[in-house]
Design goal:
- There is one protein chain.
- The chain is an all-alpha fold and 216 residues long.
- The chain has helices spanning 2-15, 19-32, 34-37, 40-62, 65-70, 76-85, 87-107, 117-162, 164-170, 174-179, 186-213.
- It contains eleven helices and no strands.
Length: 216
């Protein structure tokens, strides 16, 4: 457990300086972009969380941290698991951003940025799914291709957040689900939860397989 905590702490230390860029960006976009204002909670949660994950992976490559980690008495399964678990503290930071920014902007008269708890829940659930798509690609392409994956994901996150309102409207039933999910029965919630867990687990196993067979 102590090794896992140390690996997660390493990821946080690598990405913490990026917060200096994230904070002013979120302030600017949240206040000035009217399209995002309708779905500001998603922006405030997803953007900082995923950017910290991408930054930690990029810094691992630049600093050759993967080879250093492999020289330690730590199994590869723990190294891969630490990447998935590190999403949780990053997510807590994103949720903290959402709560603080929403409160401050609401006090300043930006009522469209008031907290939508259902949207917050959807945003929290989306982050592990996005990480589960990103990490297998990160391990598949290795150091040479990971920078291209990071660039692609940055563009997807950046432009996706800029047009999130339009994207939600374009997906049938998604906006209604965010506004009122009480119509879903227990069976659908259980099925959705099972699929969610299976997807993340499969992503971890794929990442572990790729990382274990790679010659570093």
């Amino acid at each position: 457990m102590s090794n896992l905590v140390s690996l997660i702490r390493k990821d946080f230390m690598l990405s913490r300086n990026y917060l200096l860029f994230i904070v002013p960006y979120l302030i600017l976009v949240s206040v000035m972009n009217t399209k995002i204002a309708q779905f500001g909670v998603s922006l405030l949660v997803i953007f900082p969380t995923m950017m910290m994950l991408l930054t930690s992976c990029l810094q691992d490559i630049r600093n050759v941290n993967i080879r250093f980690s492999l020289s330690l008495p730590v199994p590869r399964s723990l190294i891969v698991a630490s990447k998935y678990v590190s999403v949780l503290p990053f997510l807590l930071i994103g949720v903290a951003f959402a709560l603080v920014f929403s409160l401050v902007l609401t006090q300043l008269g930006h009522d469209s940025q008031s907290m939508n708890w259902r949207e917050l829940g959807v945003s929290i659930l989306l982050v592990p799914l996005m990480a589960s798509v990103y990490l297998p690609l990160y391990y598949l392409l290795g150091p040479k291709g990971a920078q291209y994956v990071n660039t692609a994901f940055f563009l997807v996150i950046f432009f996706g957040m800029m047009n999130l309102g339009d994207i939600i409207k374009a997906i049938p039933g998604l906006k209604a689900f965010i506004q009122d999910s009480s119509a879903l029965g227990l069976e659908k919630w259980l099925l959705g939860g099972a699929v969610y867990i299976v997807f993340i687990t499969a992503s971890y196993l794929i990442s572990l397989r790729l990382f274990s067979t790679r010659d570093l």
